[in-house]
Write a structure and sequence with these properties.
- Belongs to the glycosyl hydrolase 10 (cellulase F) family.
- This is Beta-xylanase.
- By secondary structure, the protein is of the alpha/beta class.
- It has one domain: TIM Barrel (Alpha-Beta Barrel).
- The protein is about 40% helix and about 15% strand.
- The protein is built from 11 helices and 9 strands.
- It has an 8-stranded parallel β-barrel with strand order 1-2-3-4-5-6-8-9, surrounded by 4 helices.
- Strand 8, helix 10 (about 260-290) and strand 9 (about 300-305) form a beta-alpha-beta unit.
- The longest helix is centred in the last third of the chain and has 27 residues, at about 260-290.
- About 45% of the residues are buried.
- Bound molecules: (3S,4R)-3-hydroxy-2-oxopiperidin-4-yl beta-D-xylopyranoside (XIL).
- (3S,4R)-3-hydroxy-2-oxopiperidin-4-yl beta-D-xylopyranoside binds next to loops.
Protein backbone atom coordinates (compact mmCIF):
# COMPACT_ATOMS: atom_id res chain seq x y z
CA UNK A 1 0.00 0.00 0.00
CA UNK A 2 1.53 3.31 -1.14
CA UNK A 3 1.80 6.25 1.21
CA UNK A 4 -0.56 9.07 0.37
CA UNK A 5 1.21 12.09 -1.11
CA UNK A 6 -1.27 14.55 0.38
CA UNK A 7 -0.69 13.07 3.85
CA UNK A 8 3.09 13.21 3.45
CA UNK A 9 2.92 16.90 2.54
CA UNK A 10 0.16 17.88 4.95
CA UNK A 11 2.48 20.11 7.01
CA UNK A 12 3.65 22.00 3.92
CA UNK A 13 1.25 22.45 1.03
CA UNK A 14 -1.74 20.93 -0.70
CA UNK A 15 -1.03 18.44 -3.48
CA UNK A 16 -3.26 19.05 -6.50
CA UNK A 17 -3.94 17.52 -9.90
CA UNK A 18 -5.43 18.80 -13.14
CA UNK A 19 -8.42 16.70 -14.13
CA UNK A 20 -11.28 16.43 -16.57
CA UNK A 21 -14.57 14.63 -15.85
CA UNK A 22 -13.21 11.40 -17.41
CA UNK A 23 -10.52 11.23 -14.69
CA UNK A 24 -13.09 11.20 -11.90
CA UNK A 25 -14.18 7.59 -12.31
CA UNK A 26 -12.38 4.26 -12.51
CA UNK A 27 -8.89 3.37 -11.39
CA UNK A 28 -7.32 6.76 -12.00
CA UNK A 29 -9.85 8.37 -9.67
CA UNK A 30 -8.66 6.06 -6.88
CA UNK A 31 -5.19 7.54 -7.28
CA UNK A 32 -6.67 11.02 -7.38
CA UNK A 33 -8.70 10.60 -4.21
CA UNK A 34 -5.91 8.88 -2.30
CA UNK A 35 -3.00 11.18 -3.14
CA UNK A 36 -4.47 14.59 -3.88
CA UNK A 37 -6.40 17.13 -1.82
CA UNK A 38 -6.83 19.79 -4.50
CA UNK A 39 -8.06 19.78 -8.10
CA UNK A 40 -8.11 22.09 -11.07
CA UNK A 41 -9.88 21.67 -14.41
CA UNK A 42 -7.41 21.06 -17.22
CA UNK A 43 -9.78 22.76 -19.70
CA UNK A 44 -13.37 22.82 -18.42
CA UNK A 45 -13.20 26.12 -16.57
CA UNK A 46 -11.45 28.15 -19.25
CA UNK A 47 -13.53 31.00 -20.72
CA UNK A 48 -13.58 29.28 -24.11
CA UNK A 49 -15.13 26.20 -22.49
CA UNK A 50 -17.68 28.06 -20.35
CA UNK A 51 -18.58 30.86 -22.74
CA UNK A 52 -17.54 30.20 -26.36
CA UNK A 53 -20.23 32.61 -27.59
CA UNK A 54 -21.90 35.66 -26.10
CA UNK A 55 -25.12 33.83 -25.31
CA UNK A 56 -23.46 30.60 -24.14
CA UNK A 57 -22.77 29.59 -20.54
CA UNK A 58 -21.80 25.91 -20.35
CA UNK A 59 -20.89 24.74 -16.90
CA UNK A 60 -21.83 21.06 -17.07
CA UNK A 61 -18.22 19.80 -17.04
CA UNK A 62 -17.07 22.53 -14.68
CA UNK A 63 -19.77 21.49 -12.23
CA UNK A 64 -18.78 17.81 -12.39
CA UNK A 65 -15.28 18.81 -11.31
CA UNK A 66 -16.51 21.26 -8.67
CA UNK A 67 -18.82 18.60 -7.24
CA UNK A 68 -15.92 16.15 -6.99
CA UNK A 69 -13.97 18.71 -4.99
CA UNK A 70 -16.91 19.13 -2.63
CA UNK A 71 -17.58 15.39 -2.28
CA UNK A 72 -13.92 14.51 -1.71
CA UNK A 73 -13.15 17.51 0.48
CA UNK A 74 -10.55 18.85 -1.94
CA UNK A 75 -9.78 22.49 -2.57
CA UNK A 76 -10.66 23.73 -6.03
CA UNK A 77 -8.26 25.91 -8.04
CA UNK A 78 -10.21 27.76 -10.68
CA UNK A 79 -8.21 27.96 -13.95
CA UNK A 80 -8.70 30.54 -15.43
CA UNK A 81 -10.82 33.69 -15.64
CA UNK A 82 -8.85 35.21 -18.52
CA UNK A 83 -6.33 33.90 -21.07
CA UNK A 84 -5.36 34.92 -24.60
CA UNK A 85 -5.80 31.27 -25.65
CA UNK A 86 -8.93 29.13 -25.25
CA UNK A 87 -10.70 32.38 -24.40
CA UNK A 88 -14.09 33.97 -24.87
CA UNK A 89 -13.01 35.74 -28.05
CA UNK A 90 -16.48 37.18 -28.50
CA UNK A 91 -15.72 39.62 -25.69
CA UNK A 92 -13.08 41.17 -27.95
CA UNK A 93 -14.99 40.97 -31.22
CA UNK A 94 -17.93 42.60 -32.96
CA UNK A 95 -21.08 40.74 -33.98
CA UNK A 96 -19.39 39.60 -37.20
CA UNK A 97 -16.42 38.09 -35.40
CA UNK A 98 -14.00 40.87 -36.29
CA UNK A 99 -11.54 41.95 -33.59
CA UNK A 100 -12.50 45.27 -32.06
CA UNK A 101 -10.41 48.37 -32.72
CA UNK A 102 -8.82 50.14 -29.78
CA UNK A 103 -11.37 52.91 -29.29
CA UNK A 104 -12.65 54.27 -25.96
CA UNK A 105 -16.14 52.88 -26.75
CA UNK A 106 -14.77 49.41 -27.43
CA UNK A 107 -12.64 49.54 -24.31
CA UNK A 108 -15.75 50.29 -22.24
CA UNK A 109 -17.62 47.46 -23.97
CA UNK A 110 -14.84 44.99 -23.21
CA UNK A 111 -14.75 46.16 -19.60
CA UNK A 112 -18.47 45.52 -19.17
CA UNK A 113 -18.31 42.10 -20.83
CA UNK A 114 -15.32 40.98 -18.80
CA UNK A 115 -16.74 42.18 -15.49
CA UNK A 116 -20.13 40.59 -16.17
CA UNK A 117 -18.54 37.27 -17.04
CA UNK A 118 -16.22 37.20 -14.04
CA UNK A 119 -18.99 38.27 -11.67
CA UNK A 120 -21.22 35.47 -12.93
CA UNK A 121 -18.55 32.75 -12.75
CA UNK A 122 -17.08 33.72 -9.39
CA UNK A 123 -20.56 34.05 -7.88
CA UNK A 124 -21.34 30.58 -9.23
CA UNK A 125 -18.34 29.03 -7.47
CA UNK A 126 -18.36 31.16 -4.34
CA UNK A 127 -17.62 28.99 -1.34
CA UNK A 128 -16.42 26.15 -3.61
CA UNK A 129 -13.39 27.54 -5.45
CA UNK A 130 -10.65 28.61 -3.03
CA UNK A 131 -8.09 29.94 -5.54
CA UNK A 132 -8.44 31.65 -8.90
CA UNK A 133 -5.92 32.05 -11.69
CA UNK A 134 -7.42 35.44 -12.45
CA UNK A 135 -5.22 36.12 -15.45
CA UNK A 136 -3.01 33.61 -17.23
CA UNK A 137 0.18 34.28 -19.23
CA UNK A 138 -0.06 38.06 -19.57
CA UNK A 139 3.74 38.51 -19.52
CA UNK A 140 5.95 38.32 -22.61
CA UNK A 141 9.57 38.85 -21.68
CA UNK A 142 10.46 39.35 -25.34
CA UNK A 143 8.61 42.66 -25.49
CA UNK A 144 9.99 45.99 -24.31
CA UNK A 145 7.28 46.55 -21.70
CA UNK A 146 7.02 42.86 -20.79
CA UNK A 147 3.31 42.69 -21.66
CA UNK A 148 1.91 40.05 -23.99
CA UNK A 149 0.54 41.54 -27.21
CA UNK A 150 -2.96 40.06 -26.88
CA UNK A 151 -6.25 41.61 -27.96
CA UNK A 152 -6.96 42.26 -24.29
CA UNK A 153 -3.82 44.38 -24.22
CA UNK A 154 -4.42 46.03 -27.58
CA UNK A 155 -7.94 47.16 -26.70
CA UNK A 156 -7.57 47.99 -23.00
CA UNK A 157 -3.86 48.45 -22.32
CA UNK A 158 -3.10 46.83 -18.99
CA UNK A 159 -6.46 47.83 -17.46
CA UNK A 160 -8.04 44.41 -18.14
CA UNK A 161 -5.80 42.92 -15.48
CA UNK A 162 -7.02 45.27 -12.78
CA UNK A 163 -10.67 44.84 -13.85
CA UNK A 164 -10.36 41.06 -13.65
CA UNK A 165 -8.93 41.06 -10.13
CA UNK A 166 -11.40 43.65 -8.88
CA UNK A 167 -14.43 41.86 -10.29
CA UNK A 168 -13.31 38.52 -8.85
CA UNK A 169 -12.72 40.05 -5.43
CA UNK A 170 -16.05 41.86 -5.43
CA UNK A 171 -17.90 38.63 -6.25
CA UNK A 172 -16.09 36.59 -3.58
CA UNK A 173 -14.02 38.57 -1.06
CA UNK A 174 -12.73 35.30 0.46
CA UNK A 175 -11.26 33.97 -2.79
CA UNK A 176 -7.48 33.92 -3.09
CA UNK A 177 -6.45 35.55 -6.35
CA UNK A 178 -3.37 34.64 -8.42
CA UNK A 179 -1.52 35.83 -11.46
CA UNK A 180 -0.34 32.69 -13.29
CA UNK A 181 2.45 32.26 -15.83
CA UNK A 182 5.07 29.89 -17.24
CA UNK A 183 8.87 30.23 -17.16
CA UNK A 184 8.64 32.34 -14.01
CA UNK A 185 12.17 31.14 -13.20
CA UNK A 186 13.58 33.25 -16.05
CA UNK A 187 15.03 36.33 -14.34
CA UNK A 188 13.76 38.74 -17.00
CA UNK A 189 10.25 37.30 -17.00
CA UNK A 190 10.23 36.99 -13.21
CA UNK A 191 11.13 40.65 -12.86
CA UNK A 192 8.43 41.82 -15.28
CA UNK A 193 5.93 39.70 -13.36
CA UNK A 194 7.22 41.01 -10.05
CA UNK A 195 6.94 44.63 -11.16
CA UNK A 196 3.40 44.04 -12.39
CA UNK A 197 2.30 42.24 -9.22
CA UNK A 198 3.78 44.83 -6.89
CA UNK A 199 2.44 47.81 -8.83
CA UNK A 200 -1.04 46.26 -8.90
CA UNK A 201 -0.86 45.72 -5.16
CA UNK A 202 0.43 49.27 -4.60
CA UNK A 203 -2.63 50.54 -6.50
CA UNK A 204 -4.84 48.60 -4.13
CA UNK A 205 -5.74 45.80 -6.54
CA UNK A 206 -6.56 42.60 -4.61
CA UNK A 207 -3.79 40.22 -5.74
CA UNK A 208 -2.69 37.55 -3.28
CA UNK A 209 -0.18 35.38 -5.01
CA UNK A 210 1.72 34.09 -7.99
CA UNK A 211 1.07 30.85 -9.84
CA UNK A 212 4.22 29.29 -11.24
CA UNK A 213 3.14 26.84 -13.95
CA UNK A 214 6.43 24.88 -13.82
CA UNK A 215 6.29 22.89 -17.04
CA UNK A 216 9.87 21.69 -16.79
CA UNK A 217 11.94 18.75 -18.03
CA UNK A 218 14.33 16.24 -16.52
CA UNK A 219 17.33 18.56 -16.80
CA UNK A 220 16.17 22.16 -16.86
CA UNK A 221 15.65 24.79 -15.62
CA UNK A 222 17.81 24.61 -12.51
CA UNK A 223 16.12 24.10 -9.16
CA UNK A 224 18.02 27.17 -7.98
CA UNK A 225 16.37 29.42 -10.59
CA UNK A 226 12.94 28.09 -9.68
CA UNK A 227 13.74 28.66 -6.03
CA UNK A 228 15.04 32.21 -6.48
CA UNK A 229 11.82 33.25 -8.16
CA UNK A 230 9.60 31.85 -5.42
CA UNK A 231 11.82 33.48 -2.82
CA UNK A 232 11.60 36.87 -4.50
CA UNK A 233 7.79 36.88 -4.50
CA UNK A 234 7.57 35.39 -1.02
CA UNK A 235 9.88 37.97 0.50
CA UNK A 236 7.59 40.66 -0.90
CA UNK A 237 4.63 39.02 0.86
CA UNK A 238 3.02 37.13 -2.02
CA UNK A 239 1.80 33.56 -1.66
CA UNK A 240 3.23 31.07 -4.16
CA UNK A 241 1.63 28.08 -5.84
CA UNK A 242 3.10 25.60 -8.28
CA UNK A 243 0.11 25.35 -10.58
CA UNK A 244 0.88 23.05 -13.53
CA UNK A 245 3.86 20.91 -12.64
CA UNK A 246 5.04 18.28 -15.08
CA UNK A 247 8.53 17.02 -15.83
CA UNK A 248 8.99 16.06 -19.47
CA UNK A 249 11.40 13.21 -20.20
CA UNK A 250 12.57 15.15 -23.28
CA UNK A 251 15.06 17.99 -23.31
CA UNK A 252 14.95 18.69 -27.07
CA UNK A 253 12.30 18.44 -29.78
CA UNK A 254 14.22 15.87 -31.83
CA UNK A 255 14.23 13.05 -29.29
CA UNK A 256 11.72 10.24 -28.96
CA UNK A 257 11.87 7.22 -26.65
CA UNK A 258 9.97 3.97 -27.07
CA UNK A 259 10.36 2.30 -24.70
CA UNK A 260 11.55 4.89 -22.22
CA UNK A 261 15.02 3.97 -20.88
CA UNK A 262 15.07 3.13 -17.19
CA UNK A 263 17.86 5.65 -16.57
CA UNK A 264 15.66 8.45 -17.92
CA UNK A 265 12.89 7.55 -15.49
CA UNK A 266 15.43 7.36 -12.70
CA UNK A 267 16.76 10.79 -13.63
CA UNK A 268 13.19 12.05 -13.50
CA UNK A 269 12.80 10.57 -10.04
CA UNK A 270 15.83 12.48 -8.78
CA UNK A 271 14.47 15.64 -10.38
CA UNK A 272 11.15 15.30 -8.53
CA UNK A 273 13.06 14.64 -5.31
CA UNK A 274 15.32 17.68 -5.66
CA UNK A 275 12.42 19.95 -6.61
CA UNK A 276 10.17 18.85 -3.75
CA UNK A 277 13.01 19.05 -1.23
CA UNK A 278 13.52 22.65 -2.26
CA UNK A 279 9.78 23.42 -2.16
CA UNK A 280 9.59 22.09 1.39
CA UNK A 281 12.65 24.11 2.37
CA UNK A 282 11.16 27.27 0.88
CA UNK A 283 7.82 26.68 2.57
CA UNK A 284 9.58 26.40 5.92
CA UNK A 285 11.46 29.65 5.33
CA UNK A 286 8.18 31.54 5.48
CA UNK A 287 7.38 30.04 8.87
CA UNK A 288 10.77 30.96 10.29
CA UNK A 289 11.15 34.40 8.74
CA UNK A 290 11.40 37.48 10.92
CA UNK A 291 7.79 38.24 11.96
CA UNK A 292 8.35 41.95 11.44
CA UNK A 293 8.97 41.42 7.70
CA UNK A 294 6.56 40.66 4.82
CA UNK A 295 8.47 37.38 4.31
CA UNK A 296 6.92 36.00 7.48
CA UNK A 297 4.00 33.68 6.86
CA UNK A 298 3.00 31.11 9.50
CA UNK A 299 1.43 29.06 6.68
CA UNK A 300 4.69 29.01 4.73
CA UNK A 301 5.65 30.45 1.37
CA UNK A 302 3.91 27.83 -0.78
CA UNK A 303 0.27 26.87 -0.25
CA UNK A 304 -0.39 24.45 -3.10
CA UNK A 305 1.59 22.30 -5.55
CA UNK A 306 -0.56 21.08 -8.42
CA UNK A 307 0.52 18.53 -11.02
CA UNK A 308 -0.77 18.93 -14.58
CA UNK A 309 -2.32 15.47 -14.54
CA UNK A 310 -2.14 12.31 -12.47
CA UNK A 311 -0.78 9.47 -14.60
CA UNK A 312 1.11 9.31 -17.89
CA UNK A 313 -1.87 8.10 -19.94
CA UNK A 314 -3.34 11.58 -19.52
CA UNK A 315 -0.86 14.34 -20.32
CA UNK A 316 -1.07 17.27 -22.73
CA UNK A 317 2.61 16.63 -23.62
CA UNK A 318 1.94 13.58 -25.82
CA UNK A 319 2.94 14.49 -29.38
CA UNK A 320 4.14 17.97 -28.47
CA UNK A 321 7.45 18.64 -30.22
CA UNK A 322 7.15 15.54 -32.39
CA UNK A 323 5.32 12.25 -32.67
CA UNK A 324 6.22 10.81 -29.32
CA UNK A 325 4.84 9.77 -25.99
CA UNK A 326 5.86 11.74 -22.94
CA UNK A 327 5.79 10.53 -19.36
CA UNK A 328 5.91 13.61 -17.11
CA UNK A 329 3.85 12.51 -14.10
CA UNK A 330 4.42 10.41 -10.94
CA UNK A 331 2.26 7.46 -12.05
CA UNK A 332 2.66 5.49 -15.28
CA UNK A 333 0.05 4.52 -17.88
CA UNK A 334 -0.86 1.43 -15.84
CA UNK A 335 -1.29 3.69 -12.78
CA UNK A 336 1.80 2.26 -11.11
CA UNK A 337 4.07 4.50 -9.02
CA UNK A 338 7.21 5.66 -10.88
CA UNK A 339 10.55 6.80 -9.51
CA UNK A 340 8.98 10.26 -9.70
CA UNK A 341 6.46 9.22 -7.04
CA UNK A 342 9.27 7.85 -4.85
CA UNK A 343 11.18 11.06 -5.33
CA UNK A 344 8.24 12.94 -3.88
CA UNK A 345 8.09 10.47 -0.99
CA UNK A 346 11.79 10.74 -0.23
CA UNK A 347 11.83 14.53 -0.39
CA UNK A 348 9.73 15.00 2.72
C1 LIG B 1 -3.48 22.90 -21.85
C2 LIG B 1 -4.28 21.61 -21.69
O1 LIG B 1 -3.53 20.72 -20.89
C3 LIG B 1 -4.56 21.00 -23.03
O2 LIG B 1 -5.45 19.90 -22.91
C4 LIG B 1 -5.18 22.05 -23.97
O3 LIG B 1 -5.29 21.49 -25.26
C5 LIG B 1 -4.32 23.29 -24.02
O4 LIG B 1 -4.12 23.79 -22.73
N1 LIG B 1 -0.60 26.51 -19.74
C6 LIG B 1 -1.86 26.60 -19.19
C7 LIG B 1 -2.81 25.47 -19.35
O5 LIG B 1 -2.14 27.57 -18.47
O6 LIG B 1 -4.15 25.93 -19.41
C8 LIG B 1 -2.49 24.66 -20.56
O7 LIG B 1 -3.36 23.54 -20.59
C9 LIG B 1 -1.04 24.25 -20.55
C10 LIG B 1 -0.14 25.44 -20.60
Amino acid sequence: ELESLKDLYADYFEIGAAVEPNRLTGRVSELLNKHFNSIVAENSMKPGSISPREDAYNITNANIIAQHAVDQDMTLRFHTLLWHSQGSDWMLQDANGNWLDATPENKALVETRLKNYITRVVTQYKGIATYYDVVNEVIDEGRPDGMRDSYWYRITGTDFIKWAFEAAHAADPDAKLYINDYNTHSPRKRDFLFDLATSLRDEGVPIHGVGHQTHINISGPSIQQISESIQKFAEAGFDNQITELDVSIYTTSGTSYDPIPEEILLQQGYRFKELFKELVRLDEMGKHADPSTPAYNPEGWISNVTLWGIADDGTWLHNRGGTRQDAPLPFDKQYQAKYAYWGMVEAV
